[in-house]
Amino acid sequence: MPRRKxxxxxxxxxxxxxxxxxxxxxxxxxxxxxxxxxxxxxARPERGDSRSRRGRAKQPLTPAxxxxxxxxxxxxxxxxxxxxxxxxxxxxxxxxxxxDTNSGRAFMRLRRRFDSxxxxxxxPVEEIEREIAVGGLAKQKAPRIxxxxxxxxEKRGSWDLGFLRDLPLDEAKAxxxxxxxxxxxxxxxxLMFALxxxxxxxxxxxxxxxQRLGLVPPKATPEKAHDLLESALDPELVYPLHISLIKHGxxxxxxxxxLCAECPLLDGxxxxxxxxxAQ
Length: 279
Ligand code: SF4
Prior knowledge:
Bound molecules: iron/sulfur cluster
Order of helices and strands: HHHHHHHHHHHHH
Distance between the termini: 30 Å
Radius of gyration: 19 Å
Number of helices: 13
Largest sheet: none
């Protein structure tokens, strides 16, 4: 994404880099996205001369093909991990089921109210809830944040999550997922955006576009898609694919009325070929 610019961290962590929005491809505690309409009904490319690009999809595109072609449209994503997993964790919990604007406001309120992770961890849950109310779902998120901080302090005795870099990726994910309110997408956001590890957050855009392109089976859940995509990707493609698919899902490969006629992936996209043929 063209991602929100994250607010400064609660402690004096480095300013956060831009990254893609962890918009909901929620699983367990995270899952919220509204079910998409059946694709055959929702597809109605709107502009452009499609005829020259119709035809049977050839071989499905590889992730490397997709990244390369989308880079022409959206630019080449630069992976610049910001190195602040605590801020990433709290901000990603706040971002669950709300807009980036709202979660950013909620984070800024926390930052103004609490000047350290210790202060936030020790605050009554009602106070946290009050501060993050602007972000929505405060009754769920405040206890998650408090419980996560308590678990981190108990397990590690500090707020330094840099040790996750040294664990095998599966162990790092498993460690994070033991925290309250942390599902596969939140764990992957922390590992990828903060620590530069090749964990792929699958949000609603990544999930939808990957399904349409045939990168994952049509019925793969977001959690299954995490596993399938990650295991099929070269580590250096994880970040650019995530960013590219989010941009594409927001701009052309929208849930309703995808603009297949304008899409540089059409010749290798099984769903796009079906959509165009249905017109
Ligand atoms: S052709 Fe492009 S816009 Fe259409 S479904 Fe495929 S990826 Fe999405």
